Amino acid sequence: FQEIKYQCAQFKKSDGFVTTVGGSKENLKKNRYKDILPYDQTRVILSLLVEEGETDYINANFVKGPDNERCYITTQGPLSQTVVDFWRMIWEYRVKVIIMGCREFEMAKKKCECYWASHRETLEYGPFTVTNVKEEEVNEETVIRMLSVTFCDILRSGRGESRVVYQFQYTAWPDHGIPDSCDCILQFIELMHEYQGRDKTPFCIHCSAGCGRTGVICAVDYVRQLLLTSPGFAPSASDNSLHCVGD
């Protein structure tokens, strides 16, 4: 662990990787934590505009996998003012599976804005209508929600289009801690791939800050894929996201 931590610290000092866009005055309010910002070089850019005056910024990075430059989108838990941006990102990059590694509230603090509807209910987030079609507790630590998401493109056609997005929530991972068992995490990751199928669109992974628990899920899945496909490997997920391995 210390070696990985050292490599991450050295990488932060590397020339060329900056966080200028996330730290700009107009985008500061879109960051949950002021010291956790996406790299300009790997940040997710939003080109889908759903309202006048929107920017292309969201606190999110692309992280490469063994055979895909955009295998993962790592992001913070949405804020109340960034939920529409979150759904813009999910829609634009055709995300099929969202992985949530935290609870909405932890230790009496809000860690993530609720961006989904309760079971069999519908909520609207700007031009996005989200219906919770099905909700299932796979085990005591994992909830899977089947969400029907409809986007009405007001600025262009005015017509609506619907897609199914699956949200996986892992509920037993304490912030700044570790799960009691690795079995449910491993099952969780296998289920991610089962629902993703052969689709090459990115997984969207978030916790509260989008680094510690998110980074671990990326790393475990990255190693899983390498063990299945490659005899030898050198992990490089931290090259794409600052703080990918939390302290």
Topology:
Elements: H1 2-12, E1 60-63, E2 72-75, H2 83-92, E3 97-100, E4 105-106, E5 109-110, E6 122-125, E7 128-139, E8 142-152, E9 160-170, H3 183-196, E10 203-206, H4 212-229
Parallel strand pairs: 2-10, 3-9, 3-10
Antiparallel strand pairs: 1-2, 4-5, 6-7, 7-8, 8-9
Pfam family, one: Y_phosphatase
Domain Tyrosine-protein phosphatase: 1-227
Enzyme class: hydrolase
Structural notes for this entry:
- The protein has 247 residues and is α/β, with parallel strands linked by helices.
- It has a single domain (2-227), classed as Protein-Tyrosine Phosphatase, Chain A (Alpha-Beta Complex), CATH 3.90.190.
- The protein contains four helices and ten strands, in the order H-E-E-H-E-E-E-E-E-E-E-H-E-H.
- The strands form two sheets. An eight-stranded mixed β-sheet has the order 1-2-10-3-9-8-7-6, sandwiched between helices. Strands 4-5 form a two-stranded antiparallel ribbon.
- The chain is globular, with a radius of gyration of 17 Å.
- The model has no long low-confidence stretch (mean pLDDT 89).
